[in-house]
Amino acid sequence: MHDSTFKLTLRYLVSILIVGIFVFPIAWWGLTSVKPISAVFDKDRIVVFDFEPTLENYRVTVLGYSKRGSKEDGKTLMGTSGNNSYDGRSSIVSSVIVAVGSTLITTIIALLASFGLSRMQFWGSQGYLNWILSQRFLPPVAIIVPLVFIFHDMGLRDTHTGLIIAHTLINIPIAVLLLKSFMDDIPIDIDQAAMIDGATRFQCFWMVILPMVKGGLAATAVLCFIFSWTEFLLSLFLTNSIRTIPVKITTYVTSTGSEWGYISALGTSAILPSFIFILLVQRHLVRGLTMGAIKD
Amino acid sequence: MSGWLRSCVSGTLGVRTVKAGWGVSTTKFIEENMTMGSVTIQNLVKRYGSLEVLHGIDLAVEDGKFVVLLGPSGCGKSTLLRMIAGLETVTSGDIAIGEQRVNDMHPKDRNIAMVFQNYALYAHMSVRENMAFSMRLRKTAQAEVNKRVNWAASILSLEPYLDRFPKELSGGQRQRVAMGRAIVRNPEVFLFDEPLSNLDAKLRVQTRKEIKELHQRLKTTTVYVTHDQIEAMTMADQVVIMRDGVIEQIGTPLEIYDNPYNLFVAQFIGSPGMNLLTGEIVQGASGKMFQTGEVTCEVPQDSKAAVGQKVLYGIRPEHLQASMQGSGLSATVTVVEPTGPEIHLYATLAGHEICAIAHQRLDWKPNDELKLNPMIEHVHLFDAETKVALPTV
Q: Does B39 touch chain A (CB under 8 A)?
């Protein structure tokens, strides 16, 4: 079928419009991060491109230099230590440690659990699945207070390990369910063929099933990473000195005003690690990985 | 690629031209050393909770035989096959492969290979890796692996596809890869679970022939499950007909076709199916006759059917000689189906719907009168109550 030029143009216009709607806030955010403060707050007009670009915001938040001519030098704000309370370096490191750590642990646990739930028949397997799902019924805000006490007593409060465990707990149910659905798509015949070929249950998992759910694993990892990267509530309550990026950014909203330049600079920088992570796994995010295994 | 292997296989699959050279002897060596195993099943029962699906199966498959388990859906044939494979547990009874009882043996230790209906290929592995997988698990030396994979590929004409992935192959090629995966490791028994069901009609006929040739070549004991009677008839050394978890009859395809043990077998085998008329045996002038309504016809005089006995009179369509005039039973044509080599004539005879096969291309039309002459030596009589074939004296 040949579409008319009009149809084609219309299709492109609509696509551009939709992409524009999604990209605009990010672009504006990035633009704000390189604007001097005078351009961010111009009472008379909206400054788009006619400003002197500056990397000052990045210099302070990402590279940790002191704010030029700041009176706040040396002051401690909301638990951040050091000379520069706007230094976001440690929070970037924390975010990376927590997100990577929790994603890794979540996917390993979920992978094994979903294999068991998908492939093995045991008493109460269906009930067990519902129980896993029920762990997501309660919003984190409902369990945050007991969690703080428990973590405090266990010495996990304000540690990377603690936050990794918390994020893992929240992520596991959805990761298990997601991975199980990917595994359920692989017919049991494949396992049986492998078993007849001489594979043990573990070899079957490791050499046959795992490579076939690679796409699902990548998708799950991305979801877990994004959750952990953007999670706010647990990070806020369970940490004091360790600050993940979402929590750190809120400290830029102070009683004396909001540092929009810094907020946008750290926010823009925060896109980068998750973007790199997704780039790394996205080549595995292919559909139809099991294509050809069976008659579709 | 191993030219020496290809040289052993002439154009047609399985037809081998023996030429001089070390390659030929290697191929022969592989084929001559393929182990063979019998399968013995004794009083095998399978229960799922309170539901019994196999009620005491006894079956002996001899070394090197091609046995087809045939029956309608849900008759337990696949369950039986999967129990031989070790994919289902045995509730009671025994399964032995060769001399060894295998009831509690893991599938990998049974030295069997199975081809699944949906191929069950490893999608992330190339054809070569798929075929080599079992040997890789057994840590076979790489040279041996290569030799065997190349050998299997040459037999199945898969050489050009060895480095492709399953998704790049057609259905027929995928099924051949599944077979290749089975033959490379020289199992005692091949198990096929409806391997042709997913192929289109033409490919099914071709693959059927290939499987048969493969068996003729390798002579490995084969148990093959299907619900397609044509597959069973064309491929099997022995057909095992199953219904509701019991074996109805075991025999060569022609034995089963010519002497069905009971009504179920008679109806299940043959297409179009056997004509069946309900009636009774009466005493006629020239001996015992079969009567249904106004119609009477001759029955084999050596039949044990007694006068007055309610019976089913069975005759296959090709054993009803149809003509447009002359003597014979009068029937009225309802539908004419020309198939090319023959014409299927559907007609009503004394209220029964019957089918006859005519080989002459006469101008048959609906509502024509048809004269039918049953070939008496091919008449089957079944007891109306027990549905079992009545023996001859």
A: no
